[in-house]
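As a warm-up, study this chain.
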Amino acid sequence: MTTFTAEQFVAAQKASIETLFGLTHKAFEGVEKLVELNLQVAKTTLSEVAETTQAALSVKDAQELLALQAGLLQPAAEKAAAYSRHLYDIVAGTNAEFTKATESTLADSQKKVLALVDGAVKNAPAGTESAVALVKSAVAAANNAYESVHKAAKQATEVAEANFTAITNTAVKATQAAAKGKKAA
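Now compare it with the structure written out below.
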């Protein structure tokens, strides 16, 4: 039967720690991008609130106030949509890094398990061929199940991304149409 040596165990632990620190670094990069985005939005919003307040204070009648409100509606919706897109890009990018690392780690683990099974098969006593075939079949079934789940998750992510884009575009177009309708009235 194949056993792990101390060197193999240390190497495996070292690889796990490197993966952990790599993923932690990627997570902090994502948080850093998110904080940067939110600071930028807060700074811009504060400046725009000051401008809008000045404009509202200089309004002479109700008609001008309605025009000012209508003029603010479309840009606000577009900014909200842009923020959502940026936020989604940050989350999707960070998730892609995690997925890539996970896939790499799982592929490496699968290779090691298969090597371990092959080593055990070579050293298996005579008469255990059916048990060996059962183990190999179970490993193959587990790999196939993983591949199926991975493909389904990838398709679900693509559908969610397409839906998010469609909803964002629809919201912006609806706001633009509403703003045009108010201007025409």
